Amino acid sequence: MYLFESGVYPATGLSEAKRVGTIGFCLIHFPKRSFFRNMSPYFTVVIEMSEVRQWHNVKRVKRTVNALKENGFEAVYASTKTDALKDVLNRVPKNALIGVGGSITVRELGLIDALSRRGHRVAEHWSSDLAPDERMEIRRQQLTSDVFLTSSNAITESGQLVNIDGAGNRVAAMIFGPKKVIVIVGVNKIVKDLEEALDRVNNVAAPMNAKRLNRKTPCAVTGQCTDCRSPERICNVTTIINRKPVRTDVTVLLVGEELGY
Ligand code: SF4
């Protein structure tokens, strides 16, 4: 009630009902002279910031979706992780063999569990129980899977997919082999152009993945790329997919939330 009287809510495109609900929850439970009641301008700022950020993300995602379509991809937008999960599951045919690349995004969405529960055979090589030979065999299976799921390390507003890979299986499967490829990308990976994309893959995605994998590389210590010659280097291959390769079926699903590195 207090916040509406102050009239501080600009038209942001979010529904009135949603704002009323959020604000009501914040205030109704606070006593008149409580600390939180006195902090109400702070909550106002937080809510405004989050709405403005969301507005900006949506604009950016829409620009990128349009550019991807112009580059021949099927491109779609899901505003939340929950919607993204549903969308991917709807695209996977019954009994399809699923290949999964090294992707935090795919795992964050819970796709592997959801697909396994549906009875799909999932070729994924991250299990610690696997011997090196078994892991290689699974990587080969991914290349001929019915549906290959991955993310992209960066995606430009001009609709290019930019990736690095240590072994190359993930980027190979994105280009040729699987009958269908679904690339799921969080809003945090959208960049302006190729220059920014290459900076992101080398100085954000690679260091974070090197840290996660406990690799003995300079970037796993400093968080920055020094173009090392480490035997454990994780960025031996860099790919730029400018347009959808011919005779492939590639869907890019952009998600309006942060996912992966
Ligand atoms: S070249 Fe070396 S330091 Fe640079 S990102 Fe790759 S692994 Fe890290």
Topology:
Layout: H1 2-6, H2 16-28, H3 35-38, H4 40-70, E1 74-78, H5 81-91, E2 98-100, H6 104-108, H7 111-117, E3 122-123, H8 132-143, E4 147-150, E5 154-156, E6 161-165, H9 169-175, E7 180-186, E8 190-191, H10 194-212, H11 219-222, E9 237-241, E10 250-255
Helix pairs in contact: 8-9
Characterise the protein shown here.
The protein is α/β, with parallel strands linked by helices and about 260 residues long. It folds into 2 domains: about 1-55, no CATH class; about 70-255, Rossmann fold. Helix content is about 45%, strand content about 15%. The chain contains 11 helices and 10 strands. It has helices spanning about 1-5, 15-30, 35-40, 40-70, 80-90, 105-110, 110-115, 130-145, 170-175, 195-210, 220; strands at about 75-80, 100, 120-125, 145-150, 155, 160-165, 180-185, 190, 235-240, 250-255. The chain has a 6-stranded parallel beta sheet with strand order 1-10-7-4-2-3. A 4-stranded mixed beta sheet has the order 8-5-6-9, sandwiched between helices. A hairpin with a 4-residue loop joins strand 5 and strand 6 (about 160-165). Helix 8 (about 130-145) runs parallel beside helix 9 (about 170-175). The radius of gyration is 21 Å and the shape is globular. It starts with a helix and ends in a 6-residue tail after the last strand. Residues about 1-30 have low confidence and may be disordered. The site of iron/sulfur cluster (SF4) has 14 residues, from helix 10. Iron/sulfur cluster binds near residues 202, 228 and 234.
Key descriptive features of the protein:
261 residues, alpha/beta, Rossmann fold, 6-stranded parallel β-sheet, 4-stranded mixed β-sheet, 45% helix, disordered N terminus, binds iron/sulfur cluster
